[in-house]
Amino acid sequence: MERAEIEAGVIAILAQQLLLPPSEIASDATVAELGLDSLGKVEAIFALEERFDIHVPFNANEPDQPDFDFSSVPSIVAGVERLIAQQTE
Amino acid sequence: MRRVVVTGVGTVNALAKDVPGTFRAFREGRCGIGPLGFRDADRLSVRIGAEVRGWRPEDHFAAGELPLLDRVTQYALVAGSEAVAMAELPGGLGARGGVILGTAAGGIQTWEDNYRAVFQEGRNRVSPLVVPRLMHNAPASHLSIRHGLTGPVLSVSSACASANHAMGLALQQIRLGAADVMLTGGAEAMLCFGGIKAWEGLRVLAPDACRPFSLGRKGMVIGDGAGVLVFEAEEHARARGARILAEVAGFAMTSDARDIVAPTPEGAAEAMRAALADGGLAAEDVGYINAHGTGTLANDRAEAAAIRAVFPQPPPVSSTKAMHGHAIGATGALEALAVILALTEGILPPTIGLQAPDPDCDLDVVAHVARPVRVTAALSNAFAFGGLNAVLAFRQA
Hints:
By secondary structure, chain A is mainly α. Chain A is 57% helix and 0% strand.
């Protein structure tokens, strides 16, 4: 899957949680500035897993998230890319 | 106002299938958490829980009774029999006795088994006993039938605060004069595939251990079990020469009315303050707090802030969930047992698994090993999803 396609998918999922049009989410936006709450975050992760058929290692009790960096659009895209690549290895 | 006391306790949980065994585990700081053994556990991403291991229903029930009894009801009945026997309750209580029991998921295993049968296996029929087996009030009703209690009987469901709400309402029934004796507490049997699959989605379960108030904690670990306490009007207990374990001094409940999952310190603090006031206690009277202490970031920080807001000098605090797991709708009843151990034997059960104190939870946490301290009054906190807070205050008899 191309990076652009993953990025579009990630932005679409965040947009749905934030009730925003995807065009209003910049490709370098951070999750903090978008204002996603904790329940929105776990819903977005669920949507990522369903959309890309991956398992995202994410625990809401680990603020620094060593296994999956959910802090910005680029970090989420990179994480999804890595998980897709791991699956096809 | 009538005073209310505890004259009997009973339990089945991951630590032991009775109170003496559970108290021993509390004193020793033993952990009841282990690998999950139920059907399809290999399809879960979280594989640990505090199961009641080696549970053999046929040891406790006749074959003819079992089709009506989900595990949640089995646990409640076995715990109830132990509590009633300890209290040496007289027969014939009738309408002067009742049952108020908490449960969050009721007969979830029965839902699961029968959904499997119709959806997965394509069967077109289920047992006619499915409804009476899965209903939330089944544990309370079976306790009422077994012990002949025909007064106030109902079930209470408020997620992780169910048992504390149940015990608070039971206290109020006796104070009101609606009953002299109430069996109360909670029962839960959520450790099945569907139960954990649902929790997994929230990303709050720990994969390794429950470490309340500790740096490096990764969340909660679900447990199963039941705790049943006999609450009794003090004059009723004294008139029959019953052994009094502790006084149920006060209760209060509040709602955050803010977020469906994230707790606020204010709602928890107000429940603690109001429970103290209801029990005629000052903050400095309290020698121990059994915390809700789930081991999630959100709960532990909010609870620590709430305790500091209520107590200028917080007393020792522990969360026994690291031992018996988070038994959701039953957990308050298991934790009431920990409080009774503190009041009757002067032993504060520990918070095991603590790796390093979290500076954001600035409390005197009883860590690793039980602490011998004479305690005259104690609080037991429960703070549920949905923002519901229920706090009980107990006093030495």
